[in-house]
Amino acid sequence: MAEVSTFLVLLCLVTFLAFLTRNWSIPYPTVMVFVGGGIALIPGLPNVGLTPDVVFLIFLPPLLYAAAWQTPIHDFRKNIRAISLPTIGLVLMTTICVGITLIGFSRSFRGRRRLRWGQLSRRWTRSQQPQ
Predict the structure, then answer these.
(1) How many domains does the chain have?
(2) Are residues 25 and 65 in the same domain?
(3) Does the pLDDT of residue 53 top 90, yes or no?
(4) pLDDT at position 4, please?
(5) 9, 15, 37, 131: least buried by Cβ within 10 Å?
(6) Mean pLDDT, to the nearest integer, of 59-68?
(7) How far apart are CA 26 and CA 32, in angstroms?
(8) pLDDT-based confidence at 44, cuts 50/70/90?
(9) What is the chain's mean pLDDT, rounded?
(10) Helix, strand, or coil (residue 48)
(11) End-to-end CA distance of the chain
């Protein structure tokens, strides 16, 4: 029950900070990071552990949705090249680098070694998934 009350207090704090920072020139995520860091330094508070699934499924979508509505369309259109070039370019570069690396690894293995490499990578992928 203490975890639920801690969660509700933090949720109320985030809501309060979002309303408070509307009139400031500082973006609210920056304020939340600093306040969260300050809260983390207070001794005696309970540890709050979040899995990445909870963050990506519950917390991140509302933040992105709200930020998308608050983004001025004029500024977005003005900076579309600076936004899209790194996103598309870096994804393509990462895909190409991983592909070249895997082709290099797979050419060095023959027959059963290639099969064993696939089995090891499958086991590693399964071990990285949360239980």
Answers:
(1) 2
(2) yes
(3) no
(4) 75
(5) 131
(6) 82
(7) 11
(8) confident
(9) 80
(10) coil
(11) 23
Structural domain containing residue 13? 1-70
Phi and psi at residue 47, to the nearest 5°: -75, 135
Which of 38, 63, 50 lies closest to 3 in space, CA to CA?
Answer: 50
Inter-residue contact 118 to 106 (CB < 8 Å): no
Where do we find the tokens 């680098």?
A: 97
Separation in Å, CA 43 to CA 38, 39, 102: 10, 9, 47
Q: Which amino acid is at 84?
A: S
pTM of the model: 0.44
- How many other β-carbons are positioned within 10 Å of the β-carbon of residue 28? 19
**Are both 10 and 62 inside the same structural domain?**
yes
If asked whether residues 60 and 89 sit together in one domain, one would say no
